[in-house]
Design a protein that fits this description.
single chain, 593 residues, alpha+beta, 5-stranded antiparallel beta sheet, elongated, disordered C terminus
């Protein structure tokens, strides 16, 4: 500023932007000097119309970081942080003043948001505290008069609201860590399908809607992810979609590969998002936003952004406008191919839940979703079955051998285990029908599972009626004679084979056989009088998902013949056709008995 005239000698673009809100259309920034009034930090107010600029700033005063308010007569004003430094001539006279201004609008907005955020937190914490105090007071003051059902209801309120407070405090801690850059993440190779399935289970177990559509691209590579944190992200996005879409609409979770990343998205058919709001969705919300459109604590999307960016990914939202739904998507880096991608089985173990033995037989249920385990167990028990359940894939073969179920219900996605591989392990123990339960209904996924030997495939969510009907249909098909196997018992001397009950006796005494040994004996007796080749035996006895070989076949037959008391020099039941296969003499069942 030129001291002698009080006019600006020069100014930059930022100075012009700061005063733009004060000038009228067509008015030059220089023209404002005659209209501006300045209110300083000490409360004094001067008008530049009445006093030259040099007198306002002081001919020798240096101003350091002083907050001032510049205004015009109609009430418009801006607040700036001002520095003013006099520039002197060689004789010591002040020739000009250099003025720097920092616009405090952003700082003031931040302070406003901080105050609203604190008000929102206080409000959110006060609500569960009020509920807890009310329930606790009722229990303490009227415990003797309360019905047991009413007492349990008050206890449930206390527990639920305490959990709500814990979740909110956890969200607040996450926001604080995100803002300070100290959010802990522990990335490791992870399967996207498993992450999506865990998030779906957690969402539905917490009371979320059942109408979810899962569309995960087959064959996705492993991603680098902190499993717990990414499940938290997907869960937050599911909750956000549920709050902003009709109860009967479908929420879709998708995952596709995009170059060196995998993109996971959650789409809803809800109210949509105006274009001007899209850039502000992932910031920390104010109280007004929480009470208005967002619902909940409003921290979910801000936490999602912090977690995803801590993984090196990006998150964004898309919407075609109000009423047209929204799509939230984030990316995760793919594990480099040079990095080992070996999956380890989960070390966790859950005890199997055993219901009362039913007359319809035993069904083994393998699923890591406790909500599914409970609903399937209840449906099977009501239909007369005995359900043996587990969420640990390592425990499943042991339960298979112990309980000898008639059928297996198997989740496709299990911790550290591929469902198709586990099916092969289970069928090696006992050849029974296997029905897959899965949230993934893509045609190629279903086809792959059925080609590998599964009997049926049920897409979650399903009704108890559909489940029981499919189980009974699979059991009926499994009891039908296959490849000409006789329907009645097979008798050959002292040897008796009961196909329906899968029992073998010698002279009336039971012979304990493994599932594979029984299948071998059944396959040979079904074609009694004819040689069954090695290849045909392998295809009939071993599942496509768990193929055998000639060495395995000979080992099992050796054990089988020993249990039947066979003399290698003079066999009675199982005879060898060198380099071709094996055969059994015709039994009484083959002669119509």
């Amino acid at each position: 500023m030129d001291v002698s005239t009080g006019a600006p000698a020069s100014y930059n673009r930022e100075a012009r932007r700061i005063v733009d809100s004060l000038r009228d259309e067509g008015q030059a920034p220089e023209d404002l000097l005659g209209l501006l009034s300045v209110r300083r930090a000490d409360g004094s107010e001067v008008s530049l119309r009445e006093f030259p600029l040099a007198r306002v700033l002081g001919s020798s005063e240096t101003v350091r970081a002083e907050e001032i308010v510049m205004g015009v007569p109609d009430g418009r004003s801006v607040t700036v942080l001002l520095n003013a430094t006099p520039i002197r001539s060689g004789e010591g006279a002040v020739e000009s003043v250099v003025v720097t201004m920092q616009d405090l609008a952003a700082v003031q907005e931040q302070e406003r948001l901080r105050a609203e955020f604190l008000a929102m937190v206080s409000h959110e914490l006060r609500m569960p505290l009020t509920s807890i105090r009310g329930a606790a007071t009722s229990v303490l003051e009227a415990a003797a008069d309360l019905d047991p059902a009413e007492l349990r209801q008050f206890q449930r309120i206390i527990v639920d609201q305490a959990d709500r407070m814990r979740e909110l405090i956890g969200d607040l801690l996450d926001v604080a860590r995100i803002e300070t850059g100290t959010l802990p993440v522990d990335p490791e190779p992870a399967e996207v399908a498993l992450l999506v399935d865990r998030a779906r289970s957690a969402f539905q177990n917490a009371g979320g809607r059942p109408n979810l559509a899962i569309d995960v691209e087959p064959g996705l590579p492993l991603v680098t992810a902190d499993r717990r944190r990414i499940v938290q992200v997907i869960g937050n996005l599911l909750s956000n979609a549920a709050r902003h879409s009709p109860e009967d609409s479908v929420i879709t979770v998708s995952a596709v590969r995009e170059g060196g990343q995998v993109e996971v998205s959650v789409s809803d058919q809800g109210r949509g998002i105006p274009a001007q709001d899209l850039p502000h969705l992932f910031r920390r919300p104010s109280g007004e936003e929480v009470d208005g459109a967002r619902g909940g604590s409003g921290l979910g999307l801000a936490i999602c952004r912090g977690i995803v960016e801590a993984h090196g990914g990006r998150i964004h939202a898309e919407s075609d406008g109000p009423g047209l739904g929204a799509r939230f998507a984030f990316t995760l880096p793919v594990v480099p191919e040079t990095r080992p991608a070996r999956r380890s089985r989960s070390s966790g173990s859950s005890r199997s839940r055993r219901s009362e033995v039913g007359s319809a037989g035993t069904v083994l249920v393998v699923d890591d979703d406790p909500l599914t385990l409970r609903s399937v167990r209840d449906a099977l028990t009501s239909a007369g079955f005995r359900a043996v359940s587990t969420g640990d894939p390592q425990e499943a073969p042991l339960l298979m051998a112990e309980h000898r179920p008639r059928l297996v219900l198997l989740d496709q996605v299990l911790p550290g285990c591929d469902g198709v591989e586990l099916m092969g392990d289970l069928l090696a123990v006992s050849r029974v029908p296997v029905i897959f339960l899965s949230a993934y209904g893509k045609d190629e996924v279903v086809a792959r599972v059925l080609e590998q030997g599964a009997t049926d495939y049920i897409v979650k969510p399903f009704s108890p009626t559909e489940l029981v009907a499919r189980v009974r249909a699979a059991l009926r098909r499994s009891q039908e004679p296959r490849d000409g196997a006789p329907a009645g018992p097979f008798l050959l001397g002292d040897l008796a084979i009961d196909y329906e009950r899968r029992r073998v006796t010698l002279s009336g005494d039971p012979v304990e056989l493994t599932a594979t040994e029984f299948d071998l004996l059944a396959a040979l007796s079904a074609e009694a009088g004819r040689v069954v080749t090695h290849d045909r035996l392998l295809r009939r006895v071993w599942s496509p998902g768990k193929p055998g070989n000639l060495r395995v076949l000979r080992t099992h037959l050796m054990h089988l013949r020993k249990k039947l008391g066979e003399d290698g020099e003079n066999p009675r039941y199982i005879l060898v056709e060198p380099r071709v296969g094996y055969w059994m003499p015709e039994g009484e069942a083959d002669r119509g008995m």
